[in-house]
Design a protein that fits this description.
The complex is a heterotrimer.
Chain A: H1 5-14, H2 24-39, E1 62-63, H3 73-77, E2 83-84, E3 87-91
Antiparallel strand pairs in A: 2-3
Chain B: E1 3-14, E2 51-52, H1 53-65, E3 73-74, E4 77-80, E5 90-93, E6 103-109, E7 112-125, E8 129-135, E9 138-142, E10 149-155, H2 162-179, E11 191-201, E12 211-216, H3 219-238, E13 246-251, E14 256-259, E15 272-273, E16 280-281, H4 284-292, H5 298-308, H6 313-319, H7 323-336, H8 340-358, H9 369-380, H10 386-398, H11 403-410, H12 418-431, H13 433-440, H14 446-457, H15 464-476
Parallel strand pairs in B: 12-13
Antiparallel strand pairs in B: 1-10, 1-11, 3-16, 4-5, 4-15, 6-7, 7-10, 8-9, 11-12, 13-14
Helix pairs in contact in B: 1-4, 2-3, 5-6, 7-8, 7-9, 9-10, 12-14, 12-15, 14-15
Chain C: H1 6-14, H2 20-33, E1 40-43, H3 45-60, E2 71-75, H4 102-109, E3 113-118, H5 152-159, E4 165-169, H6 176-182, E5 185-188, E6 209-213, H7 216-226, E7 256-260, H8 270-285, E8 289-293, H9 301-316, H10 335-346, H11 349-362, H12 368-391, E9 394-398, H13 414-419, H14 425-430, E10 434-442, E11 445-452, H15 458-471
Parallel strand pairs in C: 2-3, 7-8, 7-9
Antiparallel strand pairs in C: 1-3, 4-6, 5-6, 5-10, 9-11, 10-11
Classes of the chains: A alpha+beta, B alpha+beta, C alpha/beta.
Chain lengths: 95, 477, 483
């Protein structure tokens, strides 16, 4: 079930990660080695095991519904690559 | 071939919280771009979500109202995709274990009741908005809406016509407003609908391939979009083609649906439990508390109106179509002390008519329940006639004055002095001998002429019953 | 002066033997002198001197607390309002954080002085500090070797006495392993003990900040300030914070130490095994009992860890898209081009590898085999620890299978690098607290002793470490050239 270069390209696209064509094989080989390591988990029977998403056995704490944030637009947009009239600008979005 | 339509709806109801679902930024509509997007909403590096208690309570309340199972533990998941209005590159939503499980809603179509299944309802955050106005060929992103709490209510594919779909959507709209969990404002996008539409040959049990029509924001457009889509799919199938599973957009200007290019590629959302949030626990105590806060729901209220106020089903439906209208009606009945029928005629007739014409909701009515009651009192005690009352109502609508003030100021009181009316009748009979002849000669219709003359002479202030009685007496002779 | 403990420096400040400005300037000079270690990404000289001045005023008014006026340095993963916060990545090379992490707020409130931001593996992904966009950090014990990672800059700076102590973060060993390789004391607290708000996320269910210092006592002073419930972090523990100094001097009589057989296998360097055994023998002298315990699923900790960490990071790093902050590629043709080039140009190889891995592990058809399976293995590993910790008070063992390796030695082989995390990642999967304390030198390179305790047993761990440091002097050893 080795990953092909083509599959690596598909994953890279899902993750919107530009990878140079000449590096794809290299990534494919690394990922296959890592997958081999991960496949070791398959040897263990875990049929009756509850998956563990969090280290601590707690439930979600709920916040009071109150507005506590003030407008900091100018502060936040100082670090933005491109803004105009308070909007973040991106290449045209086509619906 | 006969075709059957199959429709399932996904409704996004914006929950009426003050702050966002995972941050303390305001959800108020209409603020200047990005002034209500805090560091959490912007998805800055390092920020974390904390769940809004009110959003959870509203979801539970909704679930109880549709008789649904409330999950004792529900989980938030990340739905991964890239879009500029989605700051984190994932939407926090629920996938496995939504907060509200299987429930149902009953709709009425053409006098028939039908039960529509609700598969689930889950909490999630809204995305921002992309503005396509011209920024030198670029798109502007406003993230004020990002993080607004939504309840996504997913129905079973139980509807068989656009009409049923609209009835379901209206019923849900009425319900969320009754519960106070959503303001239902469709122009502002507080209540939006995605429709999954497919067709199949009548009698076939398997579903056809469906198309999803995104983001429809009015009842009218839902009906139109579905009807267009059904016809399109039948055309495709009848000309030997195949319906493609895809996302489509309804264009209200052209009244058509079209394929959305941006959603063309098959999505792999890679849902997984959000490690920044823990399981949400809904205790039995919370459910009891929410149940105790539950208002009387539309169906129960309608039944009660039919018995308590002697209304037929249609009138009761109208009066209970919103909680505010029902409350208004009951206030009028109580305050005017008038007959329930008189009150319903005025509320669902004159008042709603005027509101519709002015494009106003009951909450915005210029005539309060108290002022309308003042008018109805004077009808009930015969101070004014029904006809004069309409004149007074117009004044109520256009001024701040009470009915009594208007009646006084304009001298609209009914003439109850029978001597005065008698004198007027006598003079009319004396001045119209020809008509008297005709009437006595058997032309009963001429009677109306006399009534009209009396009303004209009294400027409508005479009690019509009294006038009729007296005229009949006088013309006998 | 740079060999003094934080308590000693604090006393000197309160006794007006030195001002915070003088102390701060002293360390700033030291940082400059040893710039070739490359342990700092940003030195916040101006800010540090301002903070020191403010601290001196507090000291003068007698309102000083334990850390008031003490210079510290922060791992460059913690957002600091107005200060460049890079996370070791080209992606954030232009990122001036617009808000303070909770940990930073707490240090500021305590009156501590921030000398600067410390180098680290890119987005905390690495065990050698070689994945940093700002270049490898040198281990002060041997400048041809790595300091470990991902908190490599923190460990190197503390070991070289460029700062009295520093913050670090630990997702799979990122505090403990560099602490071991640089011969300092590092504590990864229980998951949830320290707020993660403002700490740039790598793997949210594993990440935990913690102190890195030269002694358990100094670490306790830092932890006292860093620990605590934070309403901005849903995963923060709503547990009272004990007085960590109060417990330090408790005797260890009757302490039960567990040694997992799975820690002492052929993969472990025999010199390190010997150093650990010597340290355990020291504990016996202090009255501890030693017992064998078992962590039967330990060998699956690495695959489970790398699946979970990669999956979480693949989503956590999606926000770096060139829209609201951070790197944006030149002249994007369209939206997809903006995303793929910005991310492709600004993320390094190891980050890309893990994003790809995580994206794959979560994708349709593979979720159950990888992600869900890893979560189940996580449960089993956590249960193993629970069982062991029901038999003993703490677990001891090695931190790293080898001492510091040469820069470049493993960087071409990710699997080799991942395997070196064998003793540390399991602790993060379970969410337990773990420490590394200096326990010897092999070929003049430090060896760390790993102490793993029960949930929220930080005070106990610090006590155990402190008692050892009371009778040994490994923690006071200074790398040659930095005395």
């Amino acid at each position: 079930m080795a990953l092909s270069a083509d599959e690596v390209n598909k994953i890279a696209h899902l993750a919107r990660l530009g990878i140079d064509e000449q590096d794809i094989e290299h990534y494919a080989s690394d990922l296959n080695n890592i997958l081999d390591l991960m496949t070791q988990m398959g040897e263990l029977n875990t049929d009756d095991v509850q998956p563990m998403a969090h280290p601590l056995d707690q439930v979600q704490r709920l916040r009071e519904d109150a507005v506590k944030e003030e407008d900091q637009r100018d502060h936040f947009q100082k670090i933005a690559p491109q803004t105009e009239n308070g909007l973040y600008l991106v290449p045209k979005v086509i619906d | 071939m006969a075709w059957e339509t199959v429709i399932g709806l996904e409704i996004h109801a914006q929950l009426a919280t003050k702050s966002k679902i995972f941050s303390a930024a305001s959800t108020a509509y209409g603020a200047e771009a990005n002034t209500q997007a805090c560091e959490v909403d912007l998805g800055l590096p390092g920020v974390l979500p904390v769940l809004n208690q009110h959003a959870v309570r509203m979801a539970v309340k909704f679930g109880l109202a549709i008789d649904a199972e409330i999950a004792p533990y529900s989980i938030f998941a990340r739905k991964n995709y890239f879009y500029p209005d989605l700051p984190k590159g994932y939407q926090i939503s629920q996938f496995e274990l939504p907060i509200v499980g299987i429930g149902h809603l009953d709709i009425d179509v053409d006098g028939e009741s039908k039960r529509i299944g609700v598969t689930r309802a889950h909490l999630e955050e809204d995305a921002g908005k992309s503005l396509h106005e011209d920024f030198h060929g670029l798109t502007g992103i406003d993230l004020n809406r990002a993080g607004t709490p939504l309840l996504e209510i997913v129905s079973e594919p139980d509807m068989r016509s656009a009409k049923e779909a609209v009835a379901y959507m209206r019923k849900l709209h009425e319900l969320v407003r009754y519960l106070g969990v959503c303001d239902g404002n469709m122009q502002e996008g507080s209540f939006r609908c995605d429709a999954n539409v497919s067709v199949r040959p009548a009698g076939q049990t398997e579903f056809g391939t469906r198309a999803e029509i995104k983001n429809i924001n009015s009842f009218k457009f839902v009906e139109k979009a579905i009807n267009f889509e059904v016809e399109r799919q039948i055309d495709v199938l009848e000309s030997g083609g195949k319906v493609v599973q895809e996302t489509r957009l309804y264009d209200a200007n052209k009244d058509e649906t079209r394929s959305m290019r941006s959603k063309e590629e098959a999505n792999d959302y890679r849902y997984f439990p959000d490690p920044d949030l823990l399981p949400v626990h809904i205790s039995d105590e919370l459910k009891v508390e929410m149940q105790s806060e539950m208002p009387e729901l539309p169906d129960a209220k309608k039944q009660r109106f039919m018995t308590q106020y002697d209304q037929d089903a249609e009138s009761a439906s109208i009066l209970t179509s919103s909680r505010a209208l029902a409350d208004y009606y009951e206030a009028v009945v109580e305050q005017s002390g008038s007959e329930a029928r008189l009150c319903s005629n005025w509320v669902s007739g004159d008042l709603l008519g005027a509101l519709n014409k002015a494009g106003l909701d009951i909450e915005q009515s210029p005539v309060s329940a108290e002022r309308l009651s003042g008018l109805l009192k004077r009808i009930s005690d015969n101070t004014i006639s029904g006809k004069i009352a309409k004149q007074v109502f117009d004044e109520l609508w256009n001024s701040e004055a009470s009915a009594d003030d208007i009646i006084d100021a304009k001298g609209l009181k009914q003439i109850t002095d029978s001597g005065a009316i008698e004198a007027i009748i006598d003079s009319i009979i004396a001045n119209n001998p020809a008509q008297v002849e005709q009437y006595l000669g058997g032309k009963d219709k001429v009677f109306g002429f006399f009534v009209g003359q009396v009303m004209k002479e009294t400027q409508g202030k005479a009690n019509p019953g009294e006038v009729n009685k007296m005229l009949k007496e006088k013309l006998k002779r | 002066m740079h060999n003094q403990s934080i308590s000693e420096l604090g006393q000197a400040l309160r006794d007006k033997k030195i001002s915070s400005v003088e102390l701060t300037q002293y360390f700033l000079d030291r940082i400059k002198r040893h710039a070739s270690l490359n342990s700092f990404i940003t030195v916040t000289e101006e800010l540090a001197l301002q903070q020191a001045q403010a601290a001196d005023q507090l000291l003068a008014s007698g309102q000083a607390r334990a850390l008031t006026g003490i210079p510290l340095a922060q791992k460059d993963i913690f957002c600091m309002n107005g200060v460049k916060t890079t996370c070791g990545s080209k992606m954030l090379d232009n990122f001036i954080a617009p808000y303070d992490a909770t940990v930073i707020k707490q240090f500021n409130a305590a009156g501590a002085v921030t000398l600067g931001k410390l180098n680290m593996d890119e987005f905390a992904m690495g065990s050698s500090n070689e994945t940093s966009f700002y270049g490898a950090v040198q281990n002060p014990w041997n400048t041809d070797t790595v300091p470990g990672g991902s908190s490599g800059g923190s460990a190197a700076a503390v070991a070289a006495r460029l700062t009295p102590a520093a913050s670090g973060t630990d997702t799979g060993g990122s505090i403990r392993q560099p602490a071991a390789l640089c011969g300092i004391t590092g504590l990864k607290p229980t998951y949830g003990r320290i707020s993660r708000y403002g700490m740039i996320a790598y793997a949210s269910s594993l990440d935990q900040g913690g102190p890195m210092a030269r002694s358990a006592e100094d670490a306790a002073l830092l932890l006292q300030v860093m620990a605590g419930f934070d309403e901005k972090d849903s995963t923060s523990a709503d547990q009272p914070v004990p007085d960590y100094l109060a417990e330090l001097n408790k005797p260890l009589q009757g302490l039960k130490i567990g040694l997992p057989q799975e820690f002492f296998t052929a993969d472990l360097d025999s010199d390190i095994a010997a150093a650990v055994e010597t340290a355990v023998a020291e504990y016996k002298k202090l009255g501890a009992e030693v017992k064998d315990v078992s962590l039967p699923n330990l060998k699956l900790a690495i695959p489970a860890y790398y699946v979970i960490a990669s999956a979480e990071c693949s989503a956590n790093l999606s926000r770096f898209d060139g829209v609201r902050f951070g790197y944006r590629c030149d002249n994007p043709e369209d939206l997809t081009d903006l995303y793929t080039r910005s991310r492709g140009e600004a993320f390094g190889q190891e980050v890309k590898r893990r994003i790809l891995m995580g994206t794959y592990a979560l994708s349709a058809g593979y979720y159950d085999a990888y992600y869900l399976k890893a979560q189940k293995v996580r449960r089993l590993i956590s249960n193993d620890f629970k069982q062991a910790l029901s038999e003993v008070d703490v677990i001891m063992g090695p931190v790293s299978p080898s001492t510091a390796f040469a820069i470049g030695e493993k960087s071409g082989d990710p699997i080799q690098m991942y395997l070196s995390d064998i003793y540390t990642v399991a602790v993060n999967l379970a969410g337990l607290p773990g420490m590394s304390i200096p326990a010897g030198l092999v070929d003049n390179k430090p060896v760390g002793l790993h102490i793993i305790g029960d949930y929220f047993a930080e005070a106990r761990l610090l006590n155990i470490a402190h008692q050892y440091q009371h009778v040994t002097d490994w923690h006071t050893q200074c790398p040659p050239g930095f005395e």
